[in-house]
Amino acid sequence: MKIRKNIAVSDSGFIFNPLTGDSFSVNPIGQSIINSFQERKSDKEILDDILQEYRIDKNTVEKDLNDFIRMLENYKLID
Q1: Is 48 within a domain?
Q2: In terms of C-beta distances under 8 Å and separation of at least 24 residues, what long-range contacts does 73-79 make, across chains too?
Q3: Total domains present in the chain
């Protein structure tokens, strides 16, 4: 997955889609996921990074990551 070219992402987790005018704010984990997409990391690499950084069980991380990805797809922020 990758963030679409026209999407603006700030270091503070603010995301702006200039085509629609929509803007979003993400928490630190969401910002980490966005950064990982920009680095072209795989879903598995992102999952492993989150598991290493935070004390969360794998099933919860998998579900939350998949939900977050679906949300980004729904808002047409990623390809």
Answers
A1: yes
A2: 75/17, 75/22, 75/24, 76/4, 76/17, 76/20, 77/3, 77/4, 77/7, 77/15, 77/17, 77/24, 78/1, 78/2, 78/3, 78/4, 78/37, 79/1, 79/2, 79/4
A3: 1
Q: What domain range is 47 assigned to?
A: 8-74
pLDDT tens digits along 24-46: 999 999 999 999 999 999 999 99
pLDDT at 19 (0 to 100):
92
Q: What is the reported pLDDT for 27?
A: 94
- Is 45 part of any domain? yes
**Any domain includes 3:** no
